[in-house]
């Protein structure tokens, strides 16, 4: 075969390979978008599957929740920008209002609902853990869909997450420390390892390999969605029998906790005469918690109360459903 023909065939091969690679990446992006768009459905599906056939997943050790949560936080770090933290200095009043609302409304609501529904100790601990955690990673997406102040939402998520190593253990100790032993220092270390360290690692990777990170961010929401669904599956499967026996009460508590958080967050913004976009952001940030962290802390520090992991798992399912509904309602009200 002449050299010109060989060269031509080689060029044709590379052309076909490159086209296939582009097509494959395009398909993968579409699949990832579908996964992230239907995150609520996936998490709900995982919970239902775990309830129907828990034995299929009982062999999975719950300790894998912590590294899985680290994966989500690493993705969050890669998605954040240094500019996201500038809002703390350029609009400190808005961020302070949001974070104060975050760390007062949800913890106090958790305690009030636990007493109102006479929850047993383990479930009460789980509800309080959810209430004392920072804002959830899905809140930024929901704020965007609800046409809220996205910069404020991202700034609040970042700030509340940074404050979490100190405020979350302290609040849990203040609210349930009289009835159970709360390892404040241990919880602080856990949040540093499972949340802060992966976020910092993500920020470092982004600063070193910005082009790679830019391409990877298209797939990160899907990875986070699948990881959250898997965490929910593990927790629900481990406690399926107990949940089926008395799950209606705790489901009601979680739904009320979330809805009241969303409503009170909006009311705070209204009372302080903030713009509608800011009210929406604060409402969603307050109502949507990092419930995966709550389940992780329950697994690590309240092993004597296995049911304490359940509220976080249910919250993970519910707040994605309610978030989608709230986003639709807010856009219709505009």
Number of helical segments? 15
Sequence stretches where pLDDT stays below 50 over 5 or more residues: none
H/E element string?
HHHHHHHHHHHHHHH
Structural category is mainly alpha
- Helix content range: over 70%
Rg over C-alpha atoms, rounded to the nearest angstrom: 22 Å
Give the amount of beta strand, in percent. under 5%
Question: How would you describe the overall organization of this protein?
Answer:
The protein is mainly alpha-helical and 334 residues long. It is 81% helix and 0% strand. It has 15 helices and no strands. The protein has helices at 3-37, 39-52, 65-79, 87-90, 92-116, 121-132, 139-145, 150-176, 184-208, 210-216, 220-238, 240-271, 276-287, 291-301, 310-333. α7 packs parallel to α15 (310-333) and α14 runs antiparallel to α15. The protein is globular and about 80 Å long. The mean pLDDT is 82.
Short characterization:
The chain is mainly α and 334 residues long. The protein is built from 15 helices and no strands.
């Amino acid at each position: 075969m002449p050299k010109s023909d060989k060269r031509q065939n080689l060029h044709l091969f590379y052309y076909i390979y490159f086209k296939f690679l582009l097509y494959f990446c395009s398909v993968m992006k579409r699949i990832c978008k579908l996964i992230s768009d239907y995150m609520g459905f996936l998490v709900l599906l995982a919970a239902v599957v775990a309830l129907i056939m828990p034995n299929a997943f009982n062999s999975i050790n719950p300790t894998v929740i912590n590294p899985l949560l680290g994966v989500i936080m690493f993705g969050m770090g890669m998605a954040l920008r240094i500019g996201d933290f500038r809002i703390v200095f350029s609009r400190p009043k808005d961020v302070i209002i949001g974070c104060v609302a975050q760390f007062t409304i949800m913890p106090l609501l958790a305690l009030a609902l636990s007493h109102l529904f006479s929850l047993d100790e383990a479930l009460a601990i789980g509800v309080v853990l959810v209430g004392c955690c920072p804002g959830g990673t899905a809140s930024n997406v929901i704020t965007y869909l609800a046409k809220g102040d996205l910069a404020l939402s991202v700034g609040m998520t970042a700030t509340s997450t940074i404050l979490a190593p100190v405020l979350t253990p302290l609040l849990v100790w203040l609210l349930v420390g009289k009835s159970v032993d709360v390892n404040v220092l241990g919880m602080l270390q856990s949040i540093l390892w499972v949340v802060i360290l992966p976020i910092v690692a993500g920020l470092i990777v982004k600063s070193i390999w910005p082009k790679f990170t830019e391409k990877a961010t298209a797939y990160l929401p899907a990875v986070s969605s699948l990881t959250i669904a898997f965490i929910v599956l593990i927790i629900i499967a481990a406690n399926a029998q107990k949940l089926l026996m008395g799950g209606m009460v705790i489901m009601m508590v979680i739904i009320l906790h979330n809805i009241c958080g969303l409503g009170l967050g909006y009311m705070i913004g209204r009372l302080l005469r903030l713009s509608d976009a800011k009210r929406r952001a604060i409402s969603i940030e307050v109502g949507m918690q990092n419930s995966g962290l709550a389940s992780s802390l329950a697994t690590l520090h309240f092993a004597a109360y296995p049911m304490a992991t359940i509220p976080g798992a249910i919250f993970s399912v519910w707040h994605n459903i309610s978030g989608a509904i709230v986003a639709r309602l807010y856009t219709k009200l505009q």
